[in-house]
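Researcher: Let's do a round of design. I'm pasting the structure tokens now; please hold your answer until I've finished.
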């Protein structure tokens, strides 16, 4: 029996996931077999990385295929243990084409403080990431984490911190989900550095109103904080 999806699209997306994984690994975002990456294959199928594999040494033909409607594994072996988180994001947000979960060190360090990330610090982070929710801690690899992530998602969420755990970024392509992870990690590095300095000037309410108007009117992007 043939595969229930186009093999050329599986190969193309699988190769792209390998490239993204290698870039994450090179930047030190994935120790051991940390992290998982997925991409939408069609309306009801996603490709997802297998568990227990270094993101720096994946094979494009090793990707697993999951069905969104019933979470069934339709191709491959041992899909990522955080697959429920990925499935929950695709079900909640039909515009999302790719999801990355990582333990990138600066982001994870801040997530282990248990404090929400301060916003209104840097204009490009506001434009490209927007409000970054902190998902309360629950035991990883359980349906509870998927439910907590889904509850924190809004139609505008681009990146999230998982308390005492790591990150989730999403996008309309693998490239976009990776770019948001890199931006989130850089933003957390900035916030940690500011915490060491011991003071920070946050953008004023008027400056934020101007910035969010630019985001809406020029960039065409909605934001949780824009009416
Ligand atoms: Zn994790």
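Researcher: That's everything. Go ahead.
Model: Designed sequence:
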């Amino acid at each position: 029996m043939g595969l229930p999806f186009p093999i050329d699209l599986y190969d193309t997306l699988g190769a792209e996931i390998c490239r993204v994984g290698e870039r994450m690994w090179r930047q030190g975002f994935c120790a051991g077999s940390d992290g998982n990456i997925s991409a939408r294959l069609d309306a009801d199928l996603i490709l997802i990385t297998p568990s227990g594999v270094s993101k720096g040494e994946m094979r494009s033909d090793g990707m697993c295929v999951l069905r969104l409607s019933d979470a069934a594994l339709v191709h491959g072996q041992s899909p990522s243990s955080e697959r429920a988180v990925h499935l929950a994001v695709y079900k909640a947000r039909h515009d999302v084409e790719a999801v990355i979960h990582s333990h990138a060190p600066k982001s994870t360090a801040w997530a282990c403080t248990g404090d929400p990330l301060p916003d209104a610090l840097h204009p490009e982070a506001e434009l490209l990431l927007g409000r970054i929710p902190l998902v309360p801690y629950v035991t990883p690899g359980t349906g509870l984490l998927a439910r907590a992530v889904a509850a924190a998602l809004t139609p505008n969420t681009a990146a999230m911190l998982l308390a005492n755990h790591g990150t989730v970024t999403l996008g309309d392509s693998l490239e976009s989900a990776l770019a948001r992870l890199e931006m989130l990690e850089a933003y957390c590095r900035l916030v940690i550095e500011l915490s060491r300095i011991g003071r920070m000037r946050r953008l004023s309410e008027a400056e934020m109103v101007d910035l969010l108007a630019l985001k809406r009117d020029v960039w065409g992007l909605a934001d949780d904080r824009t009416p």
